[in-house]
Amino acid sequence: MDMARNKAKKTKTNKSRGAILDAAAFLFSQHGYKGTTLRDIAAALDMKAGSIYYHFSSKEELVLEILTIGLSNIIDTVVRDVEALPKNSSTKEVLVTAAKAHLFALLEKGDYTSTSIRNYGQMPEAVQKEGLVIRDKYENMWRKWLQQAQDKGEIKKSINLKVLRLSLLGSFNRTLAWYKKGEMSVSDIAESQVEIFWSGIAGDK
């Protein structure tokens, strides 16, 4: 009986923790980290603000977990889709696939991923440092792909790969500011963004 009671209590606790994370991710994505208080999150769940401290010691701990989940969603989606490509895929095919996966995670997977991008600059320095470890892991994947392309002559030697990498990822993340569902598909946006960087915008004349 005690074992069943403890299991039920643990399940309820996990659900409560998940509900807090979901509500916080939604509010952070809508109003920003600085514009959202623990009281706001508690009110959205019809609970007392003090109840949140049973699960999270601070607002910083709460947003760090959301940041970790959001960034991990992007990485996991990109890795899954790129690893599913044929081994003889071109660099451009890899980049387009990675771009599509990145945007899908960002635009279609909800509040955790958008919060991790939109709110990063508002987060406390300690939280940003924790997130930087995950971001570096992701950026290293792009470093490798772009370096391989340059080594094979697919990208000109004169191109600064750091500028290219940050410009690509920045364009993906900036999509959050203007994307409207139904105007363009995520796939079309990703293909266009990669094409602009890959082939340039200059015409034949």
Keyword list:
205 residues; mainly alpha; Tetracycline Repressor, domain 2; elongated; disordered N terminus
Structure commentary:
With about 200 residues, the chain is mostly helical. The protein has a domain at about 60-200: Tetracycline Repressor, domain 2, CATH 1.10.357.10. It contains nine helices and no strands. It has helices spanning about 1-30, 40-45, 50, 60-85, 90-110, 110-120, 125-150, 160-180, 185-200. The longest helix is centred in the N-terminal third of the chain and has 30 residues, at about 1-30. The protein starts with a helix and ends in a 6-residue tail after the last helix.
CATH architecture of the domain at 59-199: Orthogonal Bundle
Give the tally of β-strands: 0
| CATH fold group of the domain at 59-199 | Tetracycline Repressor, domain 2
Low-confidence blocks of residues = 1-14
Topology order in helix (H) and strand (E) letters: HHHHHHHHH
User: How would you describe the shape?
Assistant: elongated
Major beta-sheet overview: none
Class of secondary structure makeup: mainly alpha
Q: Tell me the strand percentage band.
A: under 5%
- The number of helical segments is 9
Q: Which oligomeric state applies?
A: single chain
What is the CATH domain class of the domain at 59-199?
Mainly Alpha
**Residue-averaged pLDDT, rounded?**
88
Radius of gyration: 20 Å
Helix content: over 70%
Give the distance, in angstroms, between the N- and C-terminal Cα atoms: 81 Å
Q: What is the H level of CATH, i.e. the homologous superfamily of the domain at 59-199?
A: Tetracycline Repressor, domain 2
